[in-house]
Amino acid sequence: MSRNTTQFDRDAIATIRGLAMDAPAAANSGHQGTAMALAPLAHVLFSRVMRYDPTDPAWSDRDRLILSAGHASILLYAMLHLTGQGLSLDDLKAFRQLGSATPGHPEFGHTIGVETTTGPLGQGLATAVGFALAERSLRATYGADLVNHTTWVIAGDGCLEEGISHEAASLAGHQKLSNLVVIYDDNRITIDGLTNLANSTDEAARFAAYGWNVVHAGEIGEDLDALEDILNEAREEAMRPTLIVLRTHVGFPSPDWTDSPKAHGLAFGAEHIARTKEIIGLPINEAFTVLPGVIDGYVEATARGREAAAQWQKIAATSGVALVEQLARPMGSGNRVMPTEEVGASIATRNALKTALNDWAAAAPGLVAGSADLTENTGVALSGATALSPTTPNGRQIYFGIREHAMGAVMNGMALHGGFLPIGGTFFVFSDYLRPAIRIAALTGARVIYSFTHDSIGVGEDGPTHQPIEHLASLRAMPGLSVIRPADAVETAGALDLAMNGDGPTALCLSRQNLPVLSGTRADGVRLGGYVLNDEVASPAVVLVGTGSEVSLCVEAAQHLAGDGIAARVVSMPDLGAFLNKSRAEREAVLPRGVPVVSIEAGATFGWAAIADVAIGIDRFGLSAPAPEVFTALGITTQHVVATVHAVLNERGAQ
Ligand SMILES: Cc1ncc(C[n+]2csc(CCOP(=O)(O)OP(=O)(O)O)c2C)c(N)n1
Ligand SMILES: [Mg+2]
């Protein structure tokens, strides 16, 4: 090893390697190979390079470490234990067990010290771009005395093979994110075998082409001083994000499986572990050994970080009040006055969003808005906002380029970093392009807002490729995501209000086409999930339920039906998921027991059986034609609602 390696260094690395084998062995599942190989890197990061205070893991100016190779979670857990950040040895012994603090992959909000949920390869790397954008923005606003930290990422072959790495790294290069350092664990192994089975990309050249500072570290995985130097140099880079290509050997120093794909996740047997521990210098008949002096060594090694945090607290107490407030409440604390729109006015809900968003912007310092090249189309243009760029790092308008997936992950990173509430827009049909990032938002509870516009066949001429069908149903099926489809401008303002104050991600599904402002809609109705628009109709014979653009069809249908002597209640259901979570009594106050329910939504009917006797919808792909013709051809019309009600009531009467 290197010139400055101490007994503490050697013992710490041996300890990490032992834990990396023992925890998966105890769980009979897990991934030791990469954790073992990267033990020296993790040790150098946590003892020599990263700025953090183990006694205050939530310190806002800490360096962030994102283990994008989430399968190597035991590496992070071992470090959190050894540095005294909340995980006990018993927690490590309960690796991957029910209710433990050490789940299979790192979970944000579950384990202290885990900055974001990782495991779906590539997400961590892309999320880290959001962390770095957040840091740089806050630094520009509040100064380097208060904000000055680095985002470190450990990424493997899988993270780089994933397509999202292209979008995210390309964006990071364009943004010249010099506060971002990715360590690429170049072990040339994935699960199926050597990477050359499926990949011959020159990754270094790829990142250089994005404008990154690419450092060929070579075979320094065991050389602590060299690692320290290269990491510190990367931190000092002022112009570009850095990719450190670190050649490592999965499973090192196993005598049997070093450099073998088997080391990735196949359990080492007891004898294999014993042979490896002998090489490492750990007692062979003992599991979960923490060598003497290791914990104390980290206490000593982190004195610098504790001091920096104490210093920071002093500065923050005097000049950091606004920063602390923004970190705590990025959406501000002002009470917004809900706009009153005139009934009958004709406003696309995407435009209503823009109005509401701009009403919010002044009071919400952390609100940032962006889009994947559809800024005006999706209502996310903040008036007067500067574009976020290397020269205006705290601009509030983010041009993501046509990179929906990176947009989703970057939004997560900005929210999870703290201080920001991002809203990002694209056409609803392309929500599929960022769905894996939406799922991370839902898993982590990141407060982000999606403006998904052009939310139906109302897109018209662009045709089936651009007309969402199954998207509402499929997003509603995702736990932890609010899916809101407001009926008009009034509900849109209420939906944004709810999303800004919510405790997780919200998808706003908004119309391209103008919609009438309806009588009876309420901004505060959105939080109810569904509510009655025409309370004056007593003892209804039927309830018509609509969402978004179809609520106005229900209103019209009710008027027709009144002419036929049929009393119809109209319910707007902007958030079906929220409605289904209400108590039975609350639901029955809206949908009286025994009264037939006809629902209508310009999308798949999947899911509506929960409340509707008959669900009118579209269980096929759309059509390319002017929107009114498409609505007619696919039966999303007032007449269809009226005819359906007659059929339902006739059937009931005939029974
Ligand atoms: C999006 C995604 N696809 C597939 C997997 C399953 N998976 C977990 S680890 C892995 C191989 C990763 O290879 P690499 O990143 O090189 O990690 P190493 O084996 O070197 O630790 C795969 C395919 C996953 N976690 N995420
Ligand atoms: Mg690999």
Describe the structure.
The chain is α/β, with parallel strands linked by helices and 655 residues long. It is built from 25 helices and 18 strands. The chain has a 6-stranded parallel sheet with strand order 8-7-9-10-12-11, sandwiched between helices. Strands 1-2-3-5-4 form a 5-stranded parallel sheet, sandwiched between helices. A 5-stranded mixed sheet has the order 14-16-15-17-18, with helices on one face. Helix 1 crosses helix 4 (73-82). The longest helix has 21 residues, at 7-27. The chain starts with 6 loop residues before the first helix and ends with a helix. The mean pLDDT is 97.
Name its key features.
single chain; 655 residues; alpha/beta; six-stranded parallel beta sheet; five-stranded parallel beta sheet; 40% helix; elongated; binds magnesium ion
How far do the termini sit from each other?
87 Å
Helical coverage, percent range:
25-40%
Bound molecules: thiamine diphosphate, magnesium ion
Helix/strand-derived category reads alpha/beta
Mean pLDDT: 97
Total strand segments: 18
Strand content: 5-15%
| Largest sheet: number of strands, sense, barrel closure | 6 strands, parallel
Shape descriptor? elongated
Please give the count of helices: 25
Strand order of the largest sheet: 8-7-9-10-12-11
Write down the Rg. Answer: 28 Å
Unreliable runs = none
Question: What's a quick, concise take on this entry?
Answer:
The chain is α/β, with parallel strands linked by helices and about 650 residues long. The protein is about 40% helix and about 10% strand. The model has no long low-confidence stretch (mean pLDDT about 95).
